[in-house]
Amino acid sequence: MKNLAFLLISIAILSSCTNEKKLPIYGEREAKITKDASGAEKVDTVYQTIPAWSFLNQDSVMITQDAFKNKIYIADFFFTSCSTICPVMHRNLKMIFDQFKDNPDVMFLSHTIDFKYDKPSVLKKYAQKLGVDGNKWQFVYGPKDSIYQMAEQNYLVAVGEDSTARDGYIHQGWLVLVDKEKRMRGAYDGTKTEQVEQLKKDIVILLNEYKK
Amino acid sequence: MNIRNSMRSYLLFGIFSAFLSCMIYSCQSAEEIEYAKYMSNGKDLYIAHCQNCHGTNGEGLGELAPPLTDTVFLKTNKADLACIVKNGSNKGVIINGKKYEGKMPSFNLATIDIAQVTVYITNSFGNKQGMYTYEQVAKDLSSCK
């Protein structure tokens, strides 16, 4: 009898562990009222998503959000001559890149905020030196307005030009996790080891949400 | 009487030599303390200024930043290290047969900080060059190219 109770309890505990964990959805949201086929009203939540964009990548090819269709991806903002937080951000991101190298569902998107110097050829050289090859990690270059607006309004990362800053620009080191519906599911400080570890775990959780 | 005197002088000599060896011994440990101070301050400076690019264990970053584990390079270029830390470098280096062309930014550090961080680097990551004094750094800095 005692054994049976123990068995039941352990089954209960184990099954509660396997309950699917989900990541939160960030950003603004609004309720939209729609009618289904029978005419009954239904409330839908509309989440903030990353809008359409097109930028030049490190191969001087114009790419759009379609390059990330059906992928989850990690986005960040950086510049190649940055000597403060970028090296450590990209050291950590490269580690994640290597970890998910063989998973076609995971991609990486780094936007440069140095619109003066970081032309595609510079980005290409940077990617090569970092040890990144192929399409999995895209480094994109775009006009100041669209990149800066994208950072602040869509990815919620503060960026800016600052002549008093050491390298001429300031920016935050967030690594932003975006799902297949282009919704933000997490933001992690790319300079902090424990947050990068969390990102690794959260990528797995997010990937599991799509496993049916 | 004579025996007593000689006993006394022996005793005095013994005390004196013990005192002397204590002095010499404490001299050495003052140097060791100085070195330990350089190492610990150097480590803090390394974390603050160098680690981003060169890594926690001096492993470097891809081909963007060279590793600091090439003991031969650090030894043969010791006199230039202080200048590189202070003024940066755009010459590029070849480390372990690999070329690094990236630019190293300048670090506006005080001479004592340069001495300490250089001692830390040249005595970590497999390097073992010992002390590099403030005075020597000042001398090396005066002949930066």
TrEMBL record, chain A:
Superkingdom of origin: Bacteria
Presence of the UniProt keyword Metal-binding in the record: yes
Alphabetized UniProt keyword annotations: Copper, Disulfide bond, Metal-binding
Disulfide bonds: 82-86
MF term (GO), any: metal ion binding
CDD domains given in the database record: SCO
Annotated residues for binding of Cu cation: 82, 86, 171
InterPro entries: SCO1/SenC, Thioredoxin-like_sf
Protein family (similarity comment): Belongs to the SCO1/2 family.
Protein name listed in UniProt: Protein SCO1/2
UniProtKB/TrEMBL annotation, chain B:
Recorded GO MF terms: electron transfer activity; heme binding; metal ion binding
SUPFAM superfamilies (alphabetical): Cytochrome c
InterPro entries in the record: Cyt_c-like_dom, Cyt_c-like_dom_sf, Cytochrome_c-type_DH
Residue ranges of domain Cytochrome c in the record: 37-125
Keyword ATP-binding: no
This protein's UniProt keywords: Heme, Iron, Metal-binding
Highest taxon of the lineage: Bacteria
Keyword Metal-binding: yes
PANTHER family reported for this sequence: ALCOHOL DEHYDROGENASE CYTOCHROME C SUBUNIT, BLL4482 PROTEIN-RELATED
Protein's name in the database: Cytochrome C oxidase, cbb3-type, subunit III
Organism encoding this protein: Pedobacter insulae
Organism lineage string: Bacteria, Pseudomonadati, Bacteroidota, Sphingobacteriia, Sphingobacteriales
